[in-house]
């Protein structure tokens, strides 16, 4: 497991495709499917995320549905820690904690199984994109309400112009926000 080299970062960036006006006019959608289809890039990404788990002493990884699952699950396995899914409302069968939030292009609600997180857990949240920061902010609220500690947030791509970092700052409460690539 290792951090990203400059070449790795360039590789990741080159595998993220811009799709204009999706899912609505004015949005530049960042499509990670070309990256997922490239085993070299996906492996470098998984290594880098697993290294962040170790760096920040995470004992669990939370992945945010749906694209966050794809990145978080292999990183958790590689780091040797548990993977906890935070799902869109109505998908988890057990007793849940829920949190509503706003997206760049709509509103949503996420949930986690209450029994999956608790005191003693140190949680790294992993997602593909940080846009407005609403999803990550809601996930931090859930983690704290479950009684767990936030180790940090790690994203593949930060959309700097949407200023999600400043929105997230108060909820981070000193925990790190790690973006592998920022545009
Ligand atoms: O910083 P924010 O403004 O909250 O936006 C970022 C979130 O938006 C996307 O998820 P989306 O809800 O579109 O779901 P998906 O992963 O299921 O496609 C993305 O995967 C992040 O989770
Ligand atoms: N512009 C964007 N591209 C990809 N995922 C997103 N999630 C929120 N905004 C996004």
Automatic annotation (TrEMBL):
Pathway: Purine metabolism; AMP biosynthesis via salvage pathway; AMP from adenine: step 1/1
Gene3D superfamilies named among the record's database cross-references: 3.40.50.2020
Keyword entries, A-Z: Cytoplasm, Glycosyltransferase, Purine salvage, Transferase
Predominant localisation class: cytoplasm
Ranges of residues in domain Phosphoribosyltransferase: 38-158
GO MF term (any one): adenine phosphoribosyltransferase activity
Biological role: Catalyzes a salvage reaction resulting in the formation of AMP, that is energically less costly than de novo synthesis.
Subunit structure: Homodimer.
Name under which the protein is recorded: Adenine phosphoribosyltransferase
Originating species: Streptomyces hazeniae
Organism placement in taxonomy: Bacteria, Bacillati, Actinomycetota, Actinomycetes, Kitasatosporales
């Amino acid at each position: 497991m290792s951090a990203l080299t400059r070449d790795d970062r360039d590789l990741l960036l080159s595998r993220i495709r811009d799709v204009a006006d999706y899912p609505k006019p004015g949005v530049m959608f960042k499509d990670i499917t070309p990256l997922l289809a490239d085993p070299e890039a996906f492996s470098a990404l998984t290594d880098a995320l697993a290294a962040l788990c170790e760096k920040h002493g995470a004992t669990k990884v939370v992945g945010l549905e749906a694209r966050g699952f794809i990145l978080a699950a292999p990183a958790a396995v590689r780091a040797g820690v548990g993977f906890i899914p935070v799902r869109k409302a109505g998908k988890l069968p057990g007793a849940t904690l829920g949190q509503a939030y706003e997206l760049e292009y709509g509103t949503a609600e996420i949930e986690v199984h209450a029994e999956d997180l608790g005191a003693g857990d140190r949680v790294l949240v992993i997602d593909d994109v940080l846009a407005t920061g609403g999803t990550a902010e809601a996930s931090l609220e859930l983690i704290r309400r479950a009684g767990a500690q936030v180790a940090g947030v790690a994203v593949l791509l930060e959309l700097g112009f949407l200023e999600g970092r400043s929105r997230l700052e108060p909820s981070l409460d000193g925990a790190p926000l790690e973006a592998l690539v920022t545009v």
